[in-house]
Amino acid sequence: MTTYKLSSNENPFPPLPGIEEAVARAAARMNRYPDAGSTALYAALAARLGVATEQLAAGTGSVAVLYHLLQAFCDPGDRVVTAWRSFEAYPIAIGINAAEPVQVPLTADGRHDLDAMAAAAAEPRTKVVVLCTPNNPTGPALTHGEVEDFLARVPGEVLVVVDEAYREFVRLEGAVDGVALLAEHPNVVVMRTFAKAYGLAGLRVGYAVAHPDVAAAIRACALPFGVSAPAQAAAVAALEHEAELMERVEAIVTERERVVEALTAQGWDLPETHANFVWLATGERTADLVTAAEEAGIVLRPFAGEGVRASIGEREANDRLVEVAAKFVP
Ligand SMILES: *Cc1c(COP(=O)(O)O)cnc(C)c1O
């Protein structure tokens, strides 16, 4: 029996031939260091996003970019506010910079509690707030209006990271567009990645879009030659093949809707997901569901005592998820 990995929100589609060829061409020059300035990638992104290249900072995944941002801006003891539960990498990134994680509980429906987060952001020594939209692992997305209201309440010297790792999967009317916030809010830092929608998780490339001073500070903390030449070439090729890649994203969204409908029909009360995963609030039965899933040949991500995150994958894998979940409806 085939085992399907639904535990890391990866893209189930194999690489497009044109992207694989670009990677092979770059790999043929592996005796050379990559372009330290990521020139072609920055040029392609700047054109695509309508920003200046000075506003960009690439890294080995957007998680690495967050590490560099915290390293650049946080002194020991500074506060970094996130929602919780949110992305597991946040407390690790905050901890290695000796900053203090301030975790604001999600609302009962898996959303950011922006009132409580704004109150936490106003406390002295707060340097950074991270908004995760859609939130990993629960799935709800923020609207543009919600984030604008939030920014109006947060001190201007606090950096507000808008982590848009799953942005391409969002089908919410009025969803936040981080890049559109930059013109009026120089304290916003948008983080995006090629790992999920663009299918390049294994090559490690993500980026921030920010005020030129902030982007320069992030770039200054990045490891020299961090983003490899194959990764840079793949990202540029992915932007060239964006239309085709977004058709695949659309197929994943269609699958997501099918899975959400089936689970809801079983009686699950799911948070409104706009990402390539669903959240099952399994509480004390978390480990049991994950074990049953393993027996059915699907690997899920458990959060002990809280719930299970299941990526949307191949159709067969999603069918198995629905079948297993039927036995665990709360
Ligand atoms: C996957 C993910 C990222 C990006 O990860 P990289 O592979 O490092 O680019 C960033 N934020 C969240 C919330 C994610 O789930």
Order of helix and strand elements from N to C terminus: EHHEHEHEHEHEHEEHHHEHEEEH
Number of helices: 12
Q: How many structural domains does the protein architecture include?
A: 2
Largest sheet: 7 strands, mixed
Helix content: 40-55%
N-end to C-end Cα span? 29 Å
- Can you tell me the CATH topology of the largest domain? Aspartate Aminotransferase, domain 2
CATH level 1 name of the largest domain: Alpha Beta
How would you describe this protein?
The protein contains twelve helices and twelve strands. It is globular, with a radius of gyration of 20 Å. The chain has two domains: 4-12 and 243-328, Aspartate Aminotransferase, domain 1, CATH 3.90.1150; 17-240, Type I PLP-dependent aspartate aminotransferase-like (Major domain) (Aspartate Aminotransferase, domain 2, 3-Layer(aba) Sandwich), CATH 3.40.640.10. It has 330 residues and is an alpha/beta fold. It has helices at 17-27, 39-49, 62-73, 89-96, 114-121, 144-153, 178-181, 212-221, 229-240, 242-266, 286-295, 315-325, and strands at residues 4-5, 56-59, 79-84, 100-105, 126-132, 159-163, 188-193, 206-209, 277-280, 298-299, 301-303, 307-311. α4 (89-96) links the parallel β3 and β4. Bound molecules: pyridoxal-5'-phosphate. Pyridoxal-5'-phosphate is lined by residues 9, 61-63, 87, 132, 136, 163, 165, 193, 195-196, 201, 206. Belongs to the class-II pyridoxal-phosphate-dependent aminotransferase family. Histidinol-phosphate aminotransferase subfamily. It catalyses: L-histidinol phosphate + 2-oxoglutarate = 3-(imidazol-4-yl)-2-oxopropyl phosphate + L-glutamate. InterPro entries: Aminotrans_II_pyridoxalP_BS, Aminotransferase_I/II_large, ArAT, HisP_aminotrans, HistidinolP_aminotransfase, PyrdxlP-dep_Trfase, PyrdxlP-dep_Trfase_major, PyrdxlP-dep_Trfase_small. Its cofactor is pyridoxal 5'-phosphate.
